Amino acid sequence: MRVMAETYPRSLSEFERQFASEHACRDYLMQLRWPGGFCCPGCGGGEFWTSRRGLLVCRDCQRQVSVTAGTIFQGSHKPLSQWFRAMWYVTGSKSGASALGLQRILGLGSYRTAWAWLHKLRRAMVRPGRDRLAGRVEVDESYLGARQEGSHGRGAGKALVVIAAQEDGAKVGRVRMARVPNASAKSLQRFVTEAVEPGSVVHTDGWAGYAGLVGKGYRHEVSAQGRLDLVGAEEDLLPRVHHVVSLLKRWLMGTHHGAVSQEHLDYYLDEFTFRFNRRTSQYRGKLFYRLIEQATQVAPAPWDQLAQGIRGRKPDHDQ
Questions:
Q1: pLDDT at 146 over 60
Q2: Pairing of strands 136-144, 201-204
C-alpha cells in the first residue's frame, strides 16, 4: 500500500513553489485524504478519472467524488490555494491570527468570511482519537473573561475552564483544557477521564470535586494546602497549570484583545492547545501539514453551526 510521506514546506519560498497552482493544492489534499491511494466511498474501487469540473469519477461505479467533500472545505466558493495560504498564515504565526488580520492578508471580501474560516480551522485543530495525557498530570481550574453585569460572587459571569498539564520534569509537557459548566465532581471528573489516561497520577488541590478520582482508576495526589481562591493562589501549588493559564490569558488578550465569547471559547482553547503542544516543532510547516491533515478528517461546519449564539449573524455566501 502506498503511503504518503510527511512532506511539507520549510519556508515561505518553499510554500509558494510547492502550492503555486490550484492543481498542486488539490493533489496534496487528495494524497492526505487517501494516503494509501484513492478509495471510492461507494464501491471501494481504486481507479478513477477526473472530470472537467475537477470531480473524481470512479471507473467501477461511476460515482463522482469531490476532493473537498466531508472536509472543512466542503461548500466553500473560494479556491483551495487561498485556503492553503490561510492555513500557512495561521500556523506560521506563533501568536495565531485574528479575523481582521486574516481578512487583510488574504484580501477577503468580508470580515465574516475570515471569522468563519478561522472557526472552521479551529475545529480541525483537534485530532480525532488523540491520545490522552499520561504519567503525572496537574489539574486545576481558572476563570476566564470579564465579569458580566448583574453577576455576583467569585468568578461571577465568567467562564470556568479546567486545565490538565502533563509533567515533563520541571517543564510542561502536553496540555488539555475545556470549558465546564461548574466545579462539581461530575464536571471535573468527566474532564479528567476524557483528558487523562487511567493509571496516571493526577495532582490537584483539595477541592472536593476531585475526591472520586481514585475510584475511576487514577492515583490521586492532593496538595496539603487545600482549596485556594485562584486569584491569589500560590503559584508553586500547581506551577505547570498556573504557567499555562498565564500564557492562555496573555494570548487571548494579545491576539484577540479579550473579545472571545463564551459560546465559542472552546474552539479558542483548542487552538491554544494545538499551538502549545507543538511549540517545539523545528519547522512551522509541520503545523501546516498537521492542520491540513486533520482538516480532511473533521466534518464540515456550516454557517448555522458556526454562528450559534451570535445575534444578527447572517450567512456569507462568499465563503
A1: no
A2: parallel
